[in-house]
Design brief:
It is a single chain. This protein is α/β, with parallel strands linked by helices. The strands form three sheets. Strands 5-6-7 form a three-stranded parallel β-sheet. A two-stranded antiparallel ribbon has the order 1-2. It is globular, with a radius of gyration of 14 Å. The model has no long low-confidence stretch (mean pLDDT about 80).
Length: about 140
C-alpha cells in the first residue's frame, strides 16, 4: 500500500484517511502488508514511520515492512520486488505512472484517486472502496 494512497502529512504528522483505517488494520491482521512511500528526507521518513506505527493495529507493525524510496523509478522497483511474494498481490498507488507500469504485472492494481471515472485502469476514491469492488460488493 502506498502511503500517499491511504494518508497524507498534516502539520508534520502522517495521518491515515479516516475511511481506510479499519481496512488497514484488517489487512495487517490477515495478510502480509507493506507500506511503500516516496520521501525526500529522513525527516519525512520519520513522520510517516510514526504515523503508520501509531495506527490501531492489534499487533505491532513490523518496521521492515515500511519501505522508502526517493524516486518514482524506485517506487516501481519496490513494487516489482514485492510481486513474487504472493499470487494475490494487490497494489494501491496514488501515482498514475506507477499504476500504468504495474498493471501488466500485478494481479490487482488500483489507482487511488479522487476522480476514478477518469482513470484508464481500475480506480477508486480510497482503498476500502477498491477492496469492496474486488469482492463484488
Amino acid at each position: 500500500v502506498e502511503c500517499s494512497a491511504v494518508g497524507r502529512v498534516e502539520d508534520g504528522v502522517w495521518v491515515a484517511n479516516e475511511v481506510d483505517v479499519q481496512m488497514l488494520v484488517t489487512l495487517h491482521d490477515e495478510c502480509e502488508m507493506y507500506f511503500v512511500a516516496m520521501v525526500e528526507s529522513d525527516e519525512e521518513e520519520e513522520v510517516i514511520t510514526r504515523g503508520v506505527t501509531s495506527l490501531p493495529f492489534t499487533h505491532p507493525f513490523p518496521p521492515h515492512r515500511l519501505i522508502y524510496c526517493s524516486t518514482e523509478t524506485g517506487l516501481k522497483a519496490v513494487y516489482r520486488q514485492l510481486l513474487g511474494r504472493s499470487p494475490t498481490t494487490i497494489a494501491a498507488s496514488a501515482s498514475p505512472p506507477v499504476v500504468t507500469y504495474l498493471f501488466p504485472h500485478v494481479p490487482h492494481v488500483c489507482l487511488i484517486t479522487a476522480t476514478p471515472e477518469t482513470s484508464p485502469v481500475l480506480a477508486a476514491p480510497n482503498l476500502t472502496t477498491y477492496l469492496a469492488l474486488l469482492k463484488g460488493e
